[in-house]
Amino acid sequence: MVPTGRMAPTPSGHLHLGNALAFGAAWLSARAAGGRVLLRVEDLDRGRARGEVALAQREDLRWLGLEWDEETAPQSSRTYPLDGIPVFRCVCTRATRHILGCMCRNKAHDKGAWRFDTPRGLVQFVDRAAGPQAFAPDEDPILVRADGEAAYPLAVVLDDHRDGVTEVVRGGDLLSATATQLRLYQALGWTPPTWLHVAVLLGHDGKKLSKSHGSTELRALRESGWTPARVWATLGPLLGVDRLDPAQFTAERVKPGEFVVAEDGRIVGAA
User: Fold this and answer.
1) Quick one: pLDDT at residue 216?
2) Domain residue limits at 253
3) Residues with Cβ < 8 Å from 266, sequence gap 6 or more?
4) Residue 21: CATH number of its domain
5) Segment 132-160, tens digit of pLDDT
6) Distance between CA 214 and CA 16 in Å, rounded?
7) Is residue 33 part of a domain?
8) CA distances from residue 205 to 20, 70, 259, 261 in whole angstroms, order as listed
9) Does residue 87 form part of some domain?
10) Is residue 196 part of a domain?
């Protein structure tokens, strides 16, 4: 099987340095293995997804040098069946589950969200950068919301399997979510991809980079005079490279953890 990675932006906000770090790592990893890179627009949240942002994200990726071999179908055009997955319907609010617990598993509700009847116990896996990991999966996460929309845990597993993704490279904030996704792979009898989680970039306020940190958006940096070479010179030390060069890349040199980004885009140190 040809090694296949993916870049999966969510078109609710412009790309920033944290996105560039994760997508750059995904691109480098796949290219270093002689593999393919897919682009998938993750627009499940139709209320926040914007077509003009998706176009701008493609432009930013090309500006960075992150070309892809194929763009797969966006999530908004896909279906997400629950076949083969142990699920139950739940009508509890978040507060009810927190305070009283949930008793819906053994009731035949005909409405509500579909939750994953998750097997308990630690899930062990190997992160290609951080090594052996063990996490308990989320307890019965929602897979399909009450309005019929698929939730991220279900969508990402089905999409990666259908798209032939063999390696998932993403931000370290999703490291623990791997446990739930592996439980879904086990339920479906599918071979999971490999996993690589890169550092999480924080703004000067200590919060994960987002569209609220506008000065770290790639478009803002470009307008202030940054070049793609400067972006990769800034992010490269966290990926073990000094430029966007697959020949330099090995997963073992990727630095996990959290790092703080100044308002001018400089990485000023570990959190």
Assistant:
1) 87
2) 4-77+149-270
3) 234
4) 3.40.50.620
5) 999 999 999 999 999 999 999 999 999 99
6) 8
7) yes
8) 20, 37, 12, 9
9) no
10) yes
Whole-prediction pTM: 0.94
DSSP structure string for the chain: ---EEEE---TTS--BHHHHHHHHHHHHHHHHTT-EEEE------TTT--HHHHHHHHHHHHHHT---SEEPPPGGG-----TTS-EEEE---HHHHHHT---GGGS--SSSEEEE-PPPS-EEEEETTTEEEEEPPPSS-EEE-TTSPBPHHHHHHHHHHHTT--EEEEEGGGTTTHHHHHHHHHHHTPPP-EEEEEPEEE-TTSSBP-TT-GGGBHHHHHHTT--HHHHHHHHHHHHT-SSS-GGG--GGG---SEEEE-TTS-EEEE-
DSSP code string of 176-232: TTHHHHHHHHHHHTPPP-EEEEEPEEE-TTSSBP-TT-GGGBHHHHHHTT--HHHHH
Buried b (16+ CB within 10 A) or exposed e, 83-121: eebebbbbebeeeebeeeebebeeeeeeebbbbbebeee
In a domain, 89, yes or no: no
- What are 173-229's pLDDT values in tens digits? 999 999 999 999 999 999 999 999 999 999 988 889 887 676 789 999 999 999 999
Distance CA 95, CA 16 (A): 34
Structural domains of the chain, count: 1
How many angstroms separate the Cα of 179 from the Cα of each of 32, 87, 241?
26, 17, 29
